[in-house]
């Protein structure tokens, strides 16, 4: 097998060639997959099920290797890998295996008297050859979850894992080659050059997970070929904390969603908190207590926290802490170890809205708290910025909760918890505005990679001549009534009463 | 810029402007209106839908006149396909809107117990609708109906190639609709470019693939999602052993009966067997004469060609060397009146000009094959069209067609009618477009389906929280897996 990529991969067999994956190679790859797709093999239920089972097997049989790869790439705690990367992916596969037959069945729809006699249905069909570009923070889940959706929908797939998580990228290439039908499912490793070469090709869909800057590049490239896209991006996911709540539980859930998810490096991690000036001190105290319960007095040493992924991101996060505007605002944490790329859970209180930390998605273990006079003001604060991928609220106030759900626009909302909506496969997972377009999970994954083809069946009987020229006033009247679809209208028209 | 007969200042204010600054101000204004929450309420949306329904009914004659002006469209076509279809869209929206606006409850599993979840539809915000010239009324207002039903503020940019309709739209929407929320911008390339530079929450474009790429690239700068309703070469596969008379009449109705072939889902070309072709040609000739008489250039029941550009384009297709001698019917032209008569060509080569672009006019080429099954490869060798049609009584062939032909929509034993079925999504795939609308799909096209999960403070399992232990890991694995047995096993340390 030719191994494409410009980075050296650990464990590559001696003697295997390494070519640069350029536009020509990309074009060749797409051509090859198109021919495979043209064979029709991916259409069958059996093929799709066999591939989903194979991918499931790949993950289950290699769980240890996956844990090691994530440890290597991110120092991700094994529990997080096992639960959030492996466990969630297994669940996706199980949902597909259970529901796929049902999803593949054409959906019959009602027709009206306008087209009588007729029947109609919506037939789901694969789009063809799709490209999935993954991210570095949940490199296994964010690669395989879209891929398994594409397979379930009957497509051929090219996966481009993130080079910023090289051990995972390498492992994915190895597992997919070993377990999957390589005529239809391939991995291309690499960085900007390889991704650019891939983006120049004509795909039937592109599924991208990452940031808004690259999201724009992906969509612009897709526009050249009218390729539809799903863009799973991010934003500043706010947490509104009301008074009169179970503060301990709320704090623990915030901690779990923030530092318990890859140390804040997750697209739906709580980014910042909004609470009242009155509540803030209590919230800070509880956070401090619970953080110490979770990570001990020396969180830089804790094995239950991911490290920062790279020195670039470490520098970026340090800059946010060094910003003049937040000096003196650190209420907890702030410790760093550059050598180990570690930053301790850090809470900042009363940061100004024009500070750096409030100007970009943090994607790290820093949690600023903004305070307002009345908690209702938080909705305006949130809506004054770009629409985030998620928004959270902790409250027992029914009216406030309803106001929040109605007025805050985000990809998804959670009341009295954080991040969990990710595991509810009956909910579409995706952004809106700057946080993305399209959605997936559960059936939404199948739909994301499917064309819903409208089909109308007519018979040769019942051929009303009113459609046909020469056009007369009578025909006009009757056509109007027929399109209107009401029996009475038609009868009136037939009798010349309209 | 097109002109209006009404030159009061307020009319001009509502009309065209040239630059990006004015476009930016317009979007800002509409964002402010949207933020006020005005468009969110059911009552406002219903009032606007009713206003639209009213204007369609009350101003029917002006609409018929504008279409006659722009494209010599026969009144029956305007009334049946533009007006009646719009009325139906309004009716469906008014009937179903309450239901569409209701959040959809969804099941949650033991993984998040106790919890409840729902999908809440919300408007995207400020949307741009760019319309086309061939069904200028329908293709402007049908998307607008969807946008309003979904609670958005709207800017409509009608096509300048249908100026009478464009101008009428300004007047009618200005008179009947809530102008703080719904606006019309007239103009051509400059005005459209100015609009496309702005940040919209959705752009809905109807037209051709070249401009669609420009629209999508502009949208990409702001991560604006798009619906692109484009076109392609919609093929008609004609089998033997069918009711040839009915099939022929339906092909004619879908082709020349829809704006003289200038419709995105008009049958573009026919594929039939070498054996059957002569019979088909004879039937077409007979029915065409029944419909349009011996002098079709004079018939009032045919739209004219929209402008001299398209007239020249279509003439070029007929003048192509590769199709000389292939015209079996028609081919007459009247340049001064921009009329081309219904024309049928037989056995055109696949590399002729007429077979390489969407015809969008009154020319119907017939390709012949030895066995009809070959037609599927012919169709699939080209870009995916917006529609594909087949006339057959052969069940197996029909199933093969539906199973292997990829197009926006398919119709068996008729043409174009799927447009009228509001329970079917209307849109393309591949080169023929992105996204769909009609009926509830219109509402969905302009909505964000927001996921909402509700949890309570009770039932707080400590297994989520650090410090992480093997026990917690086992239990969490089981919990995410969602199976009761798995959880019990884990609880008892059996996994």
Notes on the protein architecture:
Chain B: InterPro entries: Ald_DH/histidinol_DH (IPR016161), Ald_DH_C (IPR016163), Ald_DH_CS_GLU (IPR029510), Ald_DH_N (IPR016162), Aldehyde_DH_dom (IPR015590), Aldehyde_DH_NAD(P) (IPR012394). Chain B: Keywords: NAD, Oxidoreductase. Chain B: It catalyses: an aldehyde + NAD(+) + H2O = a carboxylate + NADH + 2 H(+). The complex is a heterodimer of chains A (498) and B (495). Chain A is α/β, with parallel strands linked by helices and 498 residues long. Chain A contains 16 helices and 20 strands. Chain A has helices at 23-38, 45-61, 63-74, 78-104, 141-152, 166-179, 192-199, 212-223, 247-258, 280-295, 311-322, 377-383, 398-407, 443-448, 473-484, 487-494; strands spanning 3-4, 18-19, 107-109, 118-126, 129-133, 156-160, 185-187, 205-209, 229-232, 238-241, 272-276, 330-332, 336-337, 342-343, 346-349, 366-372, 390-394, 412-415, 436-437, 450-458. Chain B is α/β, with parallel strands linked by helices and 495 residues long. Chain B folds into 3 domains: 20-230 and 440-449, Aldehyde Dehydrogenase, Chain A, domain 1; 235-424, Aldehyde Dehydrogenase, Chain A, domain 2 (3-Layer(aba) Sandwich); 461-492, no CATH class. Chain B is 42% helix and 16% strand. Chain B contains 17 helices and 18 strands. Chain B has helices at residues 9-14, 20-35, 42-58, 60-71, 75-101, 138-149, 163-176, 189-196, 209-220, 244-255, 277-292, 308-319, 374-380, 395-404, 440-445, 470-481, 484-491; strands spanning 104-106, 115-123, 126-130, 153-157, 182-184, 202-206, 226-229, 235-238, 269-273, 327-329, 333-334, 339-340, 343-346, 363-369, 387-391, 409-412, 433-434, 447-455. In chain B, the strands form 4 sheets. A 7-stranded mixed beta sheet of chain B has the order 10-13-14-9-8-15-16, with helices on both faces. In chain B, helix 2 (20-35) crosses helix 8 and helix 10 crosses helix 11. The N and C termini of chain B lie far apart (74 Å). Strand 20 (450-458) of chain A pairs parallel with strand 16 of chain B, so a sheet runs across the interface.
